[in-house]
Specification:
The structure holds two protein chains of two kinds.
Chain A: H1 3-32, H2 39-50, H3 54-76, H4 85-123, H5 126-132, H6 137-175, H7 180-189, H8 193-219, H9 225-254
Chain B: E1 8-17, E2 20-30, E3 35-39, H1 46-54, E4 61-66, E5 69-70, H2 76-84, E6 86-89, H3 101-105, H4 107-111, H5 117-130, H6 147-160, E7 165-169, H7 177-194, E8 197-201, H8 205-211, E9 214-219, E10 222-228, H9 238-245
Parallel strand pairs in B: 3-8, 3-9, 6-7, 7-8
Antiparallel strand pairs in B: 1-2, 1-4, 4-5, 9-10
Helix pairs in contact in B: 5-6
Classes of the chains: A mainly alpha, B alpha/beta.
The complex binds adenosine-5'-triphosphate (ATP) and magnesium ion (MG).
Amino acid sequence: MNPLALIGHTFLEFLQATGRLGYFTARATSHCFRRPFYFRQIGKQLLDIGYFSLPVVGLTALFTGMVLALQSHSGFSRFDAESAIPTVVVLSITRELGPVMAGLMVAGRIGAAIAAELGTMRVTEQIDALTTLSTNPYKYLIVPRLIAGTLVLPLLVLVADIIGVFGGFLVCVARLHFNAANYISQSWQYLEHRDVTSGLWKAAAFGFIIALMGCYNGFNSKGGAQGVGTATTNAVVTASILILVSNYLLTGILFAGK
Amino acid sequence: MSDNQPKIELTGVTKSFDDKHVLRGLDLTIAKGESVVIIGGSGTGKSVTLKCILGLLQHDKGTIKVDGQDIKKMSGTERDEHLDKFGMLFQGSALFDSLPVWRNVAFKLLQAHHMPHKEARERAIATLASVGLSPAVGDLYPAELSGGMQKRVALARAIAAKPEIIFFDEPTTGLDPIMADVINELIVKCVHELGATTLSITHDMASARKIADRIAMLHEGRIIWQGPKRDIDHSGNPYVDQFIHGRAEGPIRMQVRRF
Ligand SMILES: Nc1ncnc2c1ncn2[C@@H]1O[C@H](COP(=O)(O)OP(=O)(O)OP(=O)(O)O)[C@@H](O)[C@H]1O
Ligand SMILES: [Mg+2]
């Protein structure tokens, strides 16, 4: 095939894939606002995505905060700016590291799990079976995951923020001999509402992206075990990339003019 | 609605996957309360036919009517009503492995018909009993059952909501001969007691003879013979003869190469 045709072909395929994803997203989202709602399923997903992700997200946040404090100290001590460390830690965690790290960890944990579960249901005809039992698979399988993902990730990130800041505090006080009360008051001093809320908005977007990519790839998987494997990988990779890209875009929007 | 309106009517239905033409103009009419069995070689599109009628797969050309209604021209609510008429036993059982057996059986009653929990459970246990499974099985998970038990649970799930039309995709494969006969009788009973219309697929001629009012043979995407079951032994059709006697030699060529 000549190179031009190849480029054209690839481009068309990309457009097609984007269109399919767009259609799926629109369809799934519209079902989020129409009855019936499967509250039991939503509750189960809230537990799966939120509660059971706490250890992973907590540990990630703790060590991120600790490393952040250590690195800031080794940098800032060069020009006697150690007093800025609490502010740097709290702003970095709430604005960026909390949501992004939590998002990526949950993408690995939950995106993969959703894709594998729905993918297996697809190839073993369980999704077809749902339809024949008068249950819309979009409403029963996808909507609960999208809702739970979008609602629960901000909560996870809030926890991650607190644990991350605590990690920084721990390193500064225990290892670098900061005064504990000073550290806390300095953390609060420059912290604005927006720093935290912007991170939570991001988290909601990331939660939606993770659940969406898991559902989309799982729901449309083909073939047998191999197809499910491919769906799982794609779910994690696409969710992670979309998280990073949308993080940049959202930062531009949320902090426009500042 | 007139009484002699067919329950299910397929005319000139075609279905291809890429360049593989599976159904090539299939015509089949099923009357209300009738029990039709489709026979035919492996991979001839029997399961695809069922999925097209349910709307799980979109057929390419031709029309499929259920109760006189074209399935391609249905609105959202009409489609829900359409699906509510059916019960389907999948060839691979397709049980929900995240739910215990009794919730599988009661799924439609709980989710779609909003039956109270206790009543649904009782109905599930009773339906399980009719396919020869004890109440204790109800609390197991599908992965804990043997293949034949899974098949019977799937059968129970298909009939639990007492649908008007039931599709059985190979209901007796993987069962021992005695249990197979129990299932055959159960299917006959469904037709008689519920007045259900059934369309079954089977490779098991004994089963076909027992449950069918009429047998249709699918070959190369078309129905090449159909008639009352008593005619099957003197159909005069060489394809049917070869099939029911299971001979390797005959007009049907299997796609195999000799060693
Ligand atoms: N989703 C699909 N995508 C592509 N091809 C398919 C799909 N489903 C079925 N086919 C093809 O359609 C043909 C008919 O399949 P079908 O499952 O209807 O066979 P069958 O008559 O039920 O066979 P068996 O008796 O072995 O169950 C097969 O050749 C199969 O490869
Ligand atoms: Mg089949």
